[in-house]
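dude i think i finally got it to work??
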Amino acid sequence: MARSVSALLILLCLAVALFAAMADPKPEKPWKPEKPEKPEKPWKPEKPEKPEKPGKPWKPWKPWKPEKPEKPEKPEKPWKPWKPEKPRKVKCHDKKGSQCGGYEFQCPASCPKCYVDCDLCRPVCGCDKPGGVCQDPRFVGGDGITFYFHGKKDHDFCLLSDSDLHINAHFIGKHDPSRTRDFTWVQSVAILFGYHHLYIGAKKTATWDDTIDRLELSYDGESIDLPTNEGSVWRSSSTPSLSISRSSGTNSITVEAEEKFRIEASVVPITEQESRAHNYGMTGDDCLAHLELGFKFYSLTKDVHGVLGQTYREGYVSRVKMSSNMPIMGGFHQYRTSDLYTPDCSVSRFGRTVSGIAMVSQPADVICASGMKGRGIVCKK
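look at this
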């Protein structure tokens, strides 16, 4: 009985499954025609190869030629011996009735840039008189002793300081690594007196031409235009006692303040001959134009100081070593100033009252020999 029931259930299940399959048959996919094959590309003939370019025609072999020899360097120009400047002629331009006023004098060959001393009525060289400041600065003191003061390039130093007169100088130069000091020259000076200041300077120049004026002048900050004619005179409207005159057409002047000072100033270059002789190492961009100066003072006090000023003191004893080939005044730090127009060196006397200080009378004119080449000069009244 049980077996019959089991068989019946199995048959029932199979019947249900068969019925379900017949009731929900899966639809077949519709027929799609096959894609036609792509037709083959029609045959194209191959492009013919480009013919090769014909080569350059053969050139016959050139025979070997030796290289051209290098051109020999041009030989240096033979050294020409130095020719001294032609002595020039100068006149006395004193308008106060000098006996030689207007007369012409010829400078000696040893000093082509001389000037006329209108009191002595003869040409003199400012570099060899007391008050001379020339070359790598070579000073002739008020006592007649020659000495050198090198200072330092691109710095300012006090040459003279008194109660109502102060003179500073600006030094230019060349540095030589093999030496302990610079080669130096005075490029400009500033003269302070009262409430005024006068500037005298040499303009920088590469190539020197004595016919071109290289002097630069100003008074109380205003430029001075002095015609380049010998004897031309400029006078200050604010200080009638001050005058500047041309000693020659260019590069030489005389400055005078009545009863105070007289200055002879000239602009000169460093020549190639000087550079060779002293190993200055000059270059073509600067001939180091500088000033040569001759000072004369009329009313200094007993307390006057400065590199040059102290040598005008009564009883002054020089500290330079006269036995040396180049007697040098040291201690440049005490003469250094902060700038050209400031009287602030440590020995400054400018602005002090003169009460109780004796005045140095006008120094007598002296005649000095210059053949000692730096060891000192002998001066006679």
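The chain has two helices and 21 strands.
im so relieved honestly
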